[in-house]
Amino acid sequence: MWYKGMNDRNQEIREKVKSYYSELTKLKGGELASAVCSCASDCIPEPVKKIVSELPEEIIMRYYGCGSPIPDRINGCTVLDLGCGTGRDVYVVSKLTGESGRVIGIDMNEDQLAVAEKYKEEMAGKWGFSNVTFKKGFIEDLASAGIEDASVDVVISNCVINLSPDKERVFSEIWRVLKDGGVLYFSDIFADRKVPEEINTHPLLLGECLGGSMSHDEFRKVMRQTGWEDFTVVSSRETPINNEEIEKLVGDIRYTSDTVRAVKPVSNAPCVCCKSQKEYAIPYKQASCCCESSPGCCC
Asked: Would you call 283 exposed, middle or buried from its count of C-beta atoms within 10 A (0-12, 13-18, 19+)?
């Protein structure tokens, strides 16, 4: 069952992605065909790496990602992981948020979620508390998974948003569920140009996170269309493919793994010149003035 409003093209892409990762999860070894989405362990900070080393081998072996989208100082926060897979980042964040925090992992793939759920009791015993919930659902429709408006402090995602055929809806949903001042922190694969449709719909290239990748221009456009003004690429590195067949299919497109930080501003921040309170429309701009007499009035 797909989410309401999904068109035929997007449904077909979702089915290809789901089938690809279900097959990977069930195969012994679970290795991807390229190095693109299997480099999540290469660039993680030492404190996170130490926590990962404490996780069950199956979680690590069947987890796919391209970065380490875990911000500092999240103790006590409510964190939502989009496309959590086998739960590697969920369990890392579980320890970092502590007993007073809460971590929710959402994924559409029941095979990957089965691996994540399998170790809930073990990890609760290891950390000394239980603060993890896994939900089956779509990152484009978090409401159907029970994620309420302004209920989350931090949203993270590791090489998953590029798999969505409806990124505008994803970023809109993230905006909805984040509290004012909340943070989106995600790693993803980006292309150096607009990716052709034949790559975006190719089953292998979709599964390997090459089809569906945004260019930076496309990313900036969709972010601003959905209300995001405060966003920064905090790290970027060239992504190797290491598969000749796939390299031929994508041609001379170059890919990078980028980690992005975006902040949802406080909606009732005071006007910078008259200091009055105003519920700003999306997007909020710090330099705007609410005074009718001002030529820069945002009313």
From this structure: middle
Dihedral of the alpha carbons of 210, 211, 214, 215, in degrees to the nearest 10 = 70
Amino acid (1-letter code) at residue 100: S
pLDDT over 70, % of the chain: 85
pTM of the model: 0.85
Q: Which residues of 58-70 are buried (b: 16+ CB within 10 A; e: fewer)?
A: ebeebbbbbbbbb
Q: In the prediction, which pLDDT does 41 show?
A: 58
Distance, CA of 289 to CA of 291 (rounded, Å): 6
Nearest Cα residue to 285 out of 223, 218, 219, 227: 227
- CA dist 59 and 114 (Å) reads 10
Q: Which amino acid is at 18?
A: K
Report, as an integer, the average pLDDT of 26-52. 78
- Domain spans of the chain? 8-263, 268-299
Sign of CA dihedral 246, 252, 253, 258: positive
Amino acid at the residue 164: S
pLDDT at 136 over 90: yes
DSSP state of 226: T
Which pLDDT score, from 0 to 100, does residue 17 have? 83
The first and second tokens of residue 210, run together, are 């090459």
Q: What is the CATH architecture of 8-263? A: 3-Layer(aba) Sandwich (3.40)
Question: How confident is the model over 47-70, as pLDDT tens digits?
Answer: 999 999 999 999 998 888 898 899
